[in-house]
Design brief:
Blueprint: E1 2-4, E2 12-17, H1 22-37, E3 41-45, H2 46-55, E4 64-65, H3 67-73, E5 76-81, H4 83-93, E6 100-104, H5 119-127, E7 131-145, E8 148-154, E9 157-161, E10 169-175, E11 178-185, E12 187-191, H6 199-202, E13 214-220, E14 230-233, E15 238-242, E16 253-258, E17 262-267, E18 270-286, H7 291-298
Parallel strand pairs: 2-3, 2-5, 3-4, 5-6
Antiparallel strand pairs: 1-7, 7-8, 7-18, 9-12, 9-16, 10-11, 10-15, 12-13, 13-14, 15-18, 16-17
Helix pairs in contact: 1-2
């Protein structure tokens, strides 16, 4: 779902980022300078503010907050880093509905599309209504561990794998209670359209336009060539039962992870249910940068490398 972004009056911009990247501090200093020129209120993640005082000789202490508090106090979250930082920011935002603007300090920048040299013009364009607000589906995976129910959330994908074992696992897969297949594989990726250009793509899964209302199920290194990825409607409930009788006792563990960041180790037999989460993540995107344009520019999609030889 896509709509024009209309900035609210007297908004407060929250700034978070990957503090391990040296360029985060430099970018934050430049961004804050632009915001101050335009008299736009802001708050900064405490750790970035501390770096700014040391490296940029800028004291943002009075306008800083704990990372966990920023989403509840801000109207827009600016995420400084790469796509991994966007995924962490999505977890911070959760169901609050606060839109995320990504500034790319990494290599790919598929989700965080803006670059440092676009910063000044992009802030002006944002307040002129030249950005789109894109709503992206998120997933939730529910399971039991140690007798307690747990749920994890993902913007990109839920991954179930063999947790370091050298043996394949059996993943008995159901869609809305209808048996689909038992994948014998290294694992399985259950992906949103947003995540279709991530891990799912490397397993042979399809590229899916973000507006599509579907979920992709892709096996990781399946034992048989006939076990292929499957696309199902996004209102489906996907149930995975992992119970590999051939596994030795020491290799009965599996790993379930969300966006490669939040993870849990479960013991076989294990059952997980994956479905749409009750909220969507909102991303601020430049109007001119359509999905297929990003495919061509970021992933070099359809480019014949022989043309440069």
């Amino acid at each position: 779902m896509k709509s024009k972004f209309v900035p609210p009056k007297n908004l407060l911009i929250g700034i978070v980022g990957n503090i391990a990247k040296p360029s985060t501090c430099e970018t934050a200093c430049a961004l804050i300078g632009i915001l101050e020129e335009r008299k736009i209120k802001f708050t900064v993640q405490h750790e970035i503010a501390a770096q700014m005082k040391t490296k940029c000789n800028y004291d943002a202490g009075k306008s800083s907050m704990q990372y966990s508090e920023i989403a509840s106090c801000s109207d827009i979250i600016v995420s400084l880093g790469g796509d991994g930082t966007i995924l962490r920011t999505a977890k911070l935002v959760g169901g609050s509905g606060k839109p995320i603007l990504g500034i790319n300090l990494g290599k790919l920048g598929f989700l965080a599309e803006l670059n440092f040299d676009e910063l000044r013009n992009s802030i002006d364009e944002l307040f002129k209504g030249k950005f789109n607000l894109e709503e992206r589906a998120t997933l939730q995976a529910s399971f039991e561990k140690d007798g307690k129910s747990s749920t994890i959330f993902a913007l990109n994908d839920i991954v179930i794998d063999k947790a370091g074992s050298s043996r394949m696992i059996d993943l008995e897969t159901y869609v809305d209670s209808e048996y689909l297949i038992t994948y014998r594989a290294d694992g399985i990726v259950i992906s949103t359209p947003t995540g279709s250009t991530g891990y799912s793509l490397s397993t042979g899964g399809p590229i899916i336009s973000p507006e599509s209302r579907v979920i992709a199920i892709s096996p990781i290194s399946p034992h048989t060539l006939t076990a292929r990825p499957v696309i199902v409607p996004d209102d489906s409930e996907i149930r995975i039962v992992v119970r590999s009788a051939s596994q030795p006792m020491g290799e009965k563990q599996i790993m379930v992870s969300a966006d490669g960041q939040t993870s849990q180790v479960l013991t076989q037999p294990a059952e997980l249910k994956v479905s749409l989460a009750p909220y969507r993540i909102k991303l601020l995107r430049k109007s001119k940068n359509g999905f297929f344009n990003l495919l061509r520019t970021k992933l070099m999609w359809g480019v014949d490398i022989r043309a440069d030889q």
